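Researcher: I'm preparing a figure for a lab meeting and need a structural model of a single chain. I don't have an experimental structure, so a prediction will have to do for now. The sequence is pasted below. Please return the structure as tokens so I can convert it later.
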Amino acid sequence: MLKPRLALLLYSSLFFVIATPHAQAQTDEAKYWGKDVTSSMDHPFIKRFTGSWLTGYSNVEWDISKFPTSNLIGKDKKFQDVVTLEGKQTRILYLAPRGKMPVEVFRNYQQALLSAGVKMRWVCETQCSALYWAWRDMNEPNKGMQWAEGSIYTPTSSRYSHSSALSPDKGMMLVGSIKRGDQETQVLLYTSVAAFESTGLSQTYIHIAEPKPMPTNQVEVDVKALQISLREEGKVTLKGLFFDTGKANIKEESKAQLDEIAKLLQAQPSRQFFIVGHTDNVGNFDANQTLSQQRAQAVVNALLAAPYRINASRLVAKGNANLAPVASNTEEAGRARNRRVELVEQ
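Model: Understood. Here is the structure written out token by token.
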């Protein structure tokens, strides 16, 4: 039989060995818990769930994103109805206080949005995993995010990175819009278990897209560059042409590019060209075909009209939808490159 003092010593040592890792985890968690991402803030449009921690943040003055406008998923596991949004993009990820379930957090955000006048496009409250994966594939929500220091800890001392907080577990999603002056701001909200059930935490991801014209006059477009590309490749991408999202109206900031195209055509009056419109692969093919044809025709019409007055026999508009991509459509950067108008020698 062990002496009482020795038994107490052994018991205390054993307790120390077992308890130390958990105690250390609690210390590490306390060190970082509640410290928001550096230089981050709530969006003025909607505040955080009480007691939440802002652990992921991105605020870009101008970028392109896509929001689903319905919860319909096609056989390709992609959203069938999508809108492309250009302008200021704010993305925030929060961790709710421990013990708060996703449904409670989601309901509070939903009520706040409705009270602010947000019109709901659609809401998914159960069995939303297919929507989650389609959204992840389309928008890459973690891309470009800044993350808080530390880790997400579980009550059993396991830990996960903040970038792993998004999960399909008990996920709930909504998309809505609100008129703010002449602009329509779009909101996507997604709440779920944070990382895994073992964390005992809920996360909420908010993406707010505010329409804003792209800064222009940042790229020089000149006739010499057009000539070189035509000589070497037989075609040239007209990067200085801009359209409203989903429309074929040429925007005013396209004038500099139109001026240079006209100079090229006027300097070589015997040559004939196709004006070819291209889209990415998002949405219905027939709609993309129509849009690409309309945009190509809009460019032709602009060049035939004053002040350019190019001979109509020299230009033919063609729409090519998404049949000739120059980059992968799996990422937004590639899709942006695929949305283009080209000048192709006949």
